[in-house]
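stage 2 :: seqdesign
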């Protein structure tokens, strides 16, 4: 009988704002299919519990407003902060200069709700 118990998994919040130069949106759109394909794998594997693009407030001003993406946000489940950091640093948005590497934030989070 095995006494191995799985390592505890923790929740992490990731704030990944985009760079602010004029070419950021074009870089984002050019690599978006690869980003979404890889994200789908992490969703299926259970690491990404919530994931999406951050939008400007003007993006929701009306039903026809242009949706302007300005970054990404995630709630992840992993054994360690380092595991999440490695995933984020290997993401095509990180390696292609879409996300602002200096402003990337990854922190453990204690969720008040357990619907994830």
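stage 2 :: out
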């Amino acid at each position: 009988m095995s006494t191995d118990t799985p390592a505890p998994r923790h929740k992490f919040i990731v704030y990944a704002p985009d760079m602010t130069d004029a070419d950021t949106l074009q870089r984002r759109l050019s690599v978006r299919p690869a980003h979404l394909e890889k994200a789908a794998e992490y969703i299926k594997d259970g690491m990404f519990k919530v994931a999406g693009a951050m939008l400007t407030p003007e993006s929701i001003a009306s039903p026809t407003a242009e949706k302007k993406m300005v970054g990404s946000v995630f709630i992840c489940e992993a054994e360690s902060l380092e595991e999440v950091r490695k995933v984020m640093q290997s993401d095509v948005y990180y390696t292609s200069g879409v996300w602002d590497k200096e402003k990337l934030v990854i922190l453990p989070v204690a969720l008040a709700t357990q619907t994830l």
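stage 3 :: structure notes
- The chain has one domain: 17-111.
- The helical segments are 24-45, 81-90, 92-95.
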